Amino acid sequence: MRDGKVIQVGTPEEIVVSPTDDYVADFVKGISRLKVVQAKSIMQSVEVFENKNGPLEKDLNSVNEHELLNKLIETSKSKDKALIVNNNQNQIVGVITQSDLLKAVIEGSDGE
């Protein structure tokens, strides 16, 4: 809210990742993306990944689509490979590469 008016409505992740204006961006600039950005927001489709990199390897770690960025980084550091993203029914819904993780962290450091 600013001057009694609602400026932006959304989940914490939506507001931190895509602030509506400079006022909201300034308000959330101190909030770590590590604790609000979920896997489903930074993953790419399996099709896009495979078109760039070939078939998925069989020994990749998997994470739930709701895992937060800090957990994704922790999981990915054990292997220098992509992560498989599963939904709640344990179906593969996407892939996160090391590059995707780095981009998610760097985008969150603007102005910090």
Explain this structure.
This protein has two domains: 31 residues, no CATH class; 76 residues, CBS domain Like. The protein is 38% helix and 11% strand. The protein is built from six helices and three strands. A three-stranded mixed β-sheet has the order 1-2-3. Helix 5 runs antiparallel to helix 6. The chain is elongated. The two termini are 22 Å apart.
Number of strands: 3
**Number of helix segments?**
6
How many whole angstroms does the radius of gyration measure? 16 Å
Average pLDDT level: 91
- Under the CATH scheme, which architecture of the largest domain would be assigned? Alpha-Beta Complex
Largest sheet: 3 strands, mixed
Structural class of the secondary elements? alpha+beta
Q: In what order do the strands lie side by side in the largest sheet?
A: 1-2-3
Distance between the termini: 22 Å
Q: Poorly predicted ranges (pLDDT <50, ≥5 residues)?
A: none
